[in-house]
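Thread: Steroid nuclear receptor ligand-binding, structure

OP (GT): Posting the sequence first so everyone is looking at the same thing. Length is 504 residues per the record. Can we get the structure tokens written out before standup tomorrow? I want them in the notebook alongside the other entries.
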Amino acid sequence: MKLVVCVLVAPPLGLWPVCVVVGSIVGGLAYGFLGPVFGTVKAVGEGKTDKFRHCVTDGVWDTIKWSLTFVRDLMDVCLYSYFSMTDDLRKQDPPGGRIEIRVIYVPIAIVVGLLGFAVDFPVITIIAALKGPYMLLKGWHRLFHDCIGREGPFLETICVPFAGLAILLWPFAVAGAMLASMLAGIILGFYAAVVAYQESSFYMGICYIVAALSIYDEYSNDILDMPEGSCFPRPRYRRNVGLQSGSTTPTVSRPVSFKNPPSRSSSFTNPMIELKPLVLLDSLFQECRRQGEFMVLEGLITVKEIDDAKSGKASGRVISIGLPAYCLFQTLLRSAKANSPGILLEDNVTEINTANRPKDGFYDWFLNPLLVMKDQIKAQNLTDSEAEYLAKLVMLSGDAEKLKNSNIGPPPESELRRAELDALVRRLQGITKSISRYPTYRRRFESSIKAILEELDRRDTNRRGSGSGSESTFGRRFSNQRSFKTRTSNQEDDLDVERNVDVV
């Protein structure tokens, strides 16, 4: 069985570097061309005085800077997020216990997969080639109609150059759609092997090969606003009808944009109520920086732990996971106490809710678990002592030795209550670990850690210059690793006074 897996995995692994190189070149060329174009049009539209200089310079440095940022984020995903997920998969047991491989159905699945590729790939390619000219003409017709009527992308003057560029580049979009259809044909064809193995039936795999053609045909008809339905039959390929995609709805719903053209009443000058997608991450790292400075001064976390977190060592888990989880818990607790329907940020004014949150599907994966977690914290009706105990437990649960040696306060007397709090800690740690795998997280986290160290070095330098007494006091506070204490508002006021003294 392992030999069969190696044979099947070898071709995708061999093609993967080629696809990555080609995709990187095409994406780099597209971004390198479109980035300065967007910057030039933006410079003209903003009414700057020296438009010629801004047309030359604007967009060039931003394109270079964001290209380097993209490379950095991609490196973090490849070297940190990927290995973090694989480590979790390696340590976790399968959901249903041991995985039993039905060896007798493996050859059947391979044969069905090859048949699916031999049928679906050429047929879907032919369908895409036949519908490609219709897509080209229909797209041009819609763009020219919007151009004459000043609708859609031609509604605002600043968008006219981009809309004209869209007319010129529309054939490339059609070619890209045809290539994507060919790739979809390969995937749909080989997926027949999965269906045949899961259903333990050669007949079900053959039914899926035919149904895949119908699924693609109906989907492409809906995208192109063509008559509904398909000339291909859609046989039943699942014994359990609920697992079969599209079993209850005959076609994919058409996008609203094909039915209702954009209204001329909307304008880019109208205020937007949506928040930026990364506003929650920005607030989280600002809170991490503030809390990190406070905890280092108190001796709750050490500079060595910060260095270990930067290098990715396990001993730095208190900083890399514990500190963001602690700040996230404080944010959710503050939102729960304020009876906020969303998430209340640290300024106690900005709120992320269902009305102003970004509408991206990716953001739902990020925000919805936090909203559920906030409701769970609110349902617990935590007392002040329980909230303080839970915050310390969230902070230190990643380091068992430090948690054992630290005084985090008395746990709840009820075993059921302790189990509930432990479950909240595990969920918070899991959510934070999942968030830490998102792009841009690692870069922002290291920037916050660097800011904490620079602030501490600045304070150390100021105190050494002010006198030996202040230096010794700071040295005792900086080096003494005391246990957790209850942080009161007076202690935070002392920290604010220290910051004001440093500024003076």
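GT: Both are above now. Quick notes for whoever picks this up: The beta strands are 343-344, 351-352. The two ends are 72 Å apart (CA to CA).
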